[in-house]
Amino acid sequence: MRYNKNAFFGGLLALSFAAAPVHAAVSAAEASRLGQDLTPFGSIKAGNEAGTIPAWTGGLTEPPAGYEGSGQHHINPFPDDEVLFTITASNMEQYDEYLTDGVRAMLRTYPTTFRIPVYQSRRTHAVPDWVAENTRKNAVNAEIVGQAEGLSGAFGGYPFPILHGTDEEKAWQVVWNHLTRWRGVSVTRRSSEVAVQTNGDYGLVTSQQEAFFNFYNPEGSEADLDNVIFYYLSFTQSPPRLAGGAILIHETLNQIINPRNGWGYNAGQRRVRRAPNLGYDSPIAAADNLRTADDTDIFNGAMDRYNWNYEGIREIYIPYNNYRIGERGTPYSEVLGISHLNPDLTRWELHRVHVVEATLKQGERHIYGKRRFYVDADSWNTVLLDQYDGRGELWRVTMGIPKNYYELPGVWTVLDVYHDLQARRYHVLGLDTEESGTRVFTDDVPNKRYFSPASLRRRSVR
User: Fold this and answer.
1) What are the distances in angstroms from CA 97 to CA 92, 275, 314, 449?
2) Is the pLDDT reported for residue 2 higher than 60?
3) Which of 99, 94, 84 is nearest to 52 (CA)?
4) Cβ-count burial of 80 within 10 angstroms (0-12 exposed, 13-18 middle, 19+ buried)?
């Protein structure tokens, strides 16, 4: 893989930055810890003193027997693991130091139905060797541009495996690691999203999705990014009133100088139009307004409307290694409870997380006045997110439900779940257990014209 540490987005983009990189990277001596006392992606390799979090010993890199390849629903590699104990509203005080405010609120809001089945902790995250090598290079080269609006010196790996600088800078680095985390090169899937009402009713919105993670282009380099982290296409297939519509996203690396580019195709009008409202707190209609634009992927987009603070590392119970909830043939009606996912299909484990708090800047507008992120220290996935309204009241609790995709390898979410505690409704992204297959990962590098507005129209009208 080519890597050019001095390339700076290339051409015109380099001239567009108002500020040069000002947040220095770590030293080569510090970076040498990667693969030694730190994992290749920057987490503490050793287990905790209590022995309740194990040491990382390489992660899960081989599929279990019977797995036939990418696209097949995953076989649970830990079928004999049993629940160690269950946290409920009645015993939650016993585990208080290991719970987030959002999880406590879920237990109190749904005391008879929501519970946390805790299993032994398994540190399954892993990355290919070339991603680990690029992460080592990024550790000494990657820099924040300006006030977190961009990166330089990073490509093909986590930008900041070793956090450094002020608490504000560390917070930015954690979020950038989430935004650019390893999820393969190209992925395709058909899945559904639902908004579950207070009585348990829901309607499926099913779509075919395709993504090319340009930041991990094995044939590219930082100079070739053209300010795009990834390309995303989604074609709605049902219900009939929405079928035929499509959306195209170019997710930009620096959203201040060049905001996210989006286009929508309207099947009735047979026209492609720019979609200007795809950022910040713009509501998502398919989610019945339970998800904002920057809620997608747990969090995405520009960070400029918030003040950011790094609060350190905690050991908490988080969803992890969730294979049962993604097993082929499990009816959606079994996955979806009235107020939350069926807890009997979930798996929680004790893991280390980075904690980051974002508070809305004075004079800025967003429906969330405060957000607290809990980011898995191994995979850099945000797995829990507490979101507060303008009065400071906890409003929405977001959960990323992850597992290891051993064909990559790497940990990514199976489902993304958004709970509105005030409305007592919730929204789920990524349902595919009733589909014949699941995500298909490839290392294919598409022609970028495939993700152009002109291509969107041609493909939509077929």
Assistant:
1) 10, 44, 9, 50
2) no
3) 84
4) exposed
The separation between CA 165 and the C-alpha centre of its own chain, rounded to angstroms, equals 24
Cβ–Cβ < 8 Å for 172, 144: yes
Q: Which residues share a beta bridge with 341? A: 336
User: Dihedral sign, CA of 285, 291, 293, 296?
Assistant: negative
Q: What is the DSSP letter of 98?
A: G
Lowest mean pLDDT among 106-120, 329-343, 430-444, 448-462: 448-462
- Whole-angstrom distance, CA of residue 448 vs CA of residue 82: 46
Contact in structure between 294 and 274 (CB atoms under 8 Å): no
Of 352, 353, 370, give the one whose Cα is nearest residue 361.
370
How far apart CA 414 and CA 405 sit, in angstroms, is 9
CA of residue 385 relative to chain centroid, distance: 11
Q: What is the DSSP letter of 371?
A: E
Give per-residue pLDDT as tens, 36-80: 999 999 999 999 999 999 999 999 999 999 999 999 999 999 999
Can you tell me the distance from the alpha carbon of 23 to that of 90, in angstroms, rounded to the nearest whole number?
Answer: 47
> In degrees to the nearest 10, what's the CA dihedral of 245, 250, 251, 252?
-150
Question: How would you classify the pairing of strands 116-118 and 85-87?
Answer: antiparallel
In degrees, rounded to 5, the angle at the alpha carbon of residue 238 between the alpha carbons of residues 234 and 241 is: 105
Q: How far apart are CA 255 and CA 301, in angstroms?
A: 7
Unique residue bearing structure tokens 């696209």: 71
Q: Running DSSP on this structure, what letter comes out for residue 73? A: P
Closest CA to 127 of 160, 156, 152: 156
Residue 100 CB coordination number (10 Å): 21
pLDDT surpassing 50 at residue 17: no
5 pLDDT more than 60: no
> Which residues fall within 8 angstroms of residue 324, CB to CB, at 6 or more apart?
76, 330, 345, 346, 347
- The angle formed by the CA atoms of residues 449, 455 and 457, to the nearest 5 degrees, is 160
Looking at the DSSP bridge assignments, the partners of residue 190 are 208
Contacts of 100 (CB under 8 A, 6+ apart): 316, 372, 374, 384, 386
Residue 425: strand pairing partners: 420
Residue 326, φ and ψ in degrees, nearest 5: -110, 10
432: which DSSP letter? -
Q: What angle do CA 185, 25, 352 make, to 5 degrees?
A: 65
pLDDT band at 420 (very low <50, low <70, confident <90, very high): very high
Q: Give per-residue burial for 324-338: e unless 16+ CB within 10 Å, then b.
A: bbbeeebeeeebbbe
